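Late entry, written up from scratch paper. The run itself happened at the end of the previous shift, but nothing got recorded in the book at the time, so transcribing now.
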Amino acid sequence: MKGMIAKSIIIWVTIAFSSVVDGFVTPNGFAKEVIRSTTTTELSSNASESTEGGLSRRQFAELSVAGVGLGVSFLGTREVQPTDYGLWGILPVGTYKSKTTLLKEIVPGKIWTLDQKFGILNVQVPLRMTVIKLSDGGLWCYNPVAATPQVVTMLKDLIAQHGPLKHIVVGSVALEHKVYAGVLAQKFSSAQVWLQSGQYSFPTDLPNTFLGFPSSRTKVIPNSLNEAPEDWKKDFDFRTLGPLISRDGAFGETVFLHKETKTLIVTDTVLEVTEEVPEICALEPGPLLYHARDTITEVVENTEEVRRRGWRRIALFGLFFTPSAIDIKDSNVAFKERRPDINSDFLGIYPWDWVRDDKASFDALTGGLLVAPILQTLILNREPIEVLEFADAVSAWDFQRIIPAHFKNDLKYTGKDFRRAYEFLQEGGESKRQPKPLEADLKLLRDSEQSLLASGAIAPCPPLPGGKFSREDILKQTVYQCRKDVCAPRAS
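Output as recorded:
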């Protein structure tokens, strides 16, 4: 929930850069528009200070400063390398401006994924876009990544072979998935844009078009297949979870079944944790080596074993924020002990020591499909009946492969495995064969839950199904909230 709130704070700051109208598509276009509007406004408001129709000293100074700032911004957003993403400042997280993309063909001639790295403090995990060829020709993509020149070239190569990009689907309300969609939509101007319902911004809710989506071709994902575009009906089934709405955020996701290849495409509803280092993370091992150290003074070599240890710890940070195996240093101590001669990342600061068994924490998450701990602890357990109905519906589909937006790609699981991942929402919890986070690693999330409940940011959990409470009792104790014209759906 903290991550969701932090993400939502960023979104309203980014509006000016998010391709609201065609004139704002490029940094250059944005600069021209700002110069035009600034000049007009300032000349009008400060006309009394000008002499003989010229600019006043104040106007000249302000425009000079603005010109320098825009010039720096333009230089900073230029895409010189194929991996550059000029608008990286909209969401300034790793890997910042340089975003290498890995294209992988999952089903020959049918399904492809494009992976980039995404994260903070070297906790970088895969961020994945899925592209599917429609049976009637053309392409459909789910959860865009940053539209670097490299990504655009990859998509154009697929388009040359399989037809135009027809649909861009944002299957989540999470910032890291929606923030790149507007830019990709502007680069492929014939594609229809489809949004998961419940998109929001903070501190105030804004229309979807103000979040960077083109107004003339953006729609909300329909409620049923009957209302879907004709070229979806032959290829897909889909199901929407939520949006589950809290005071400061929301969680919502639409998952798709590609019927021909028996592939389930999801965002965050399930993932798999394995010791195998994701290919995109292995391309540049710096973050892996950074986290592989036990202490700030340890020097590690770039070996397979070290890279695996680094990935194990990145996974723990990504899923728990503060794993139980670390001791965090006081900020003053961490700064005084910094060692840029050993690892120069973040000024040489390494603000924790690994002092307990991180392998046990990691192993508890492996061996099957997992729902991320933050979803288990702070979000999905607020509306267990609705979430389990979603899991039941999806598990009834015939699929043999799952493509999630994070962690390991191309998972070989079925509907039964998907449903088993949601056993945490039943009284009695997970079966022994199901991954289950250690309680020690959940401490930060448990503590956050108490503070969020006390502040009213999240609702109390109702009882879980399968115990002494009836379905009717659970629904009566479930709190449903609304934002704008969207309310959390209620089970009957």
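Residues 279-363 form one domain.
(Scratch paper discarded after transcription.)
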